[in-house]
Design a protein that fits this description.
- This protein is an alpha+beta fold.
- The protein has a single domain, classed as Nuclear Transport Factor 2, Chain: A (Roll).
- It is built from 3 helices and 5 strands; from the N terminus they run αββααβββ.
- Strand 3 and strand 4 form a beta hairpin.
- The N terminus is likely disordered.
C-alpha cells in the first residue's frame, strides 16, 4: 500500500527515456526511467552536456568542459559551483538547488566530486547527487 501512495505522490516527477538510451534484451523495448531516477538522469545529462551542444537548446548544459586542465584551487571550486548552480536552475525546473559542494577528491588524477543538495519543488523533500568529474586526461600511460 505504501508503494502505491509513494508512486502517486511522486507522479509529478514524470518519466522519460533512460540516459544513455538503452533497450531491454528480451522484448527490445525502450528502457524508461521515472520519478527520482528520472531527475537524477536529468541532472547527469545537464552536467555532462557542453553549452551549445544541443542545436535547438543552446543554453542547455553546464559547460563544465571549460574547466579541463585548469589548476585545482579555490577559484576553480567557486567557478564549478556557480556553473552547476546556474545550469540546474535554468534546465531542471522540478528541483531547487540548496547547496553545491566541490571537493578535490584525487589531486593526482584530477578527480573533482561535485555534490548537489536539492529538494523537489512540489514536496520539499531533500535529496543529493554526487557527480564525479575528471579535470585531467584519462590515460593509462606511465
Amino acid at each position: 500500500m505504501d508503494r502505491q501512495i509513494s508512486k502517486h505522490e511522486n507522479n509529478f516527477l514524470g518519466s522519460g527515456w533512460s540516459f544513455p538510451v538503452t533497450f531491454s534484451a528480451g522484448n527490445y523495448q525502450l528502457n524508461l526511467t521515472s520519478y527520482e531516477d528520472n531527475v537524477n538522469e536529468s541532472i547527469n545529462a545537464i552536467l555532462l552536456t557542453k553549452k551549445g551542444e544541443r542545436c535547438l537548446e543552446s543554453q542547455f548544459g553546464s559547460g563544465l568542459q571549460q574547466f579541463f586542465f585548469r589548476k585545482m584551487d579555490a577559484t576553480l571550486k567557486g567557478e564549478i559551483k556557480d556553473a552547476v548552480k546556474v545550469s540546474l536552475l535554468q534546465n531542471e525546473p522540478r528541483i531547487t538547488v540548496m547547496d553545491v559542494q566541490v571537493d578535490f577528491a584525487d589531486l593526482q588524477n584530477g578527480l573533482v566530486e561535485v555534490m548537489v543538495t536539492y529538494e523537489y519543488n512540489q514536496t520539499n523533500t531533500r535529496h543529493n547527487y554526487v557527480f564525479p568529474f575528471y579535470l585531467n586526461e584519462g590515460t593509462n600511460l606511465s
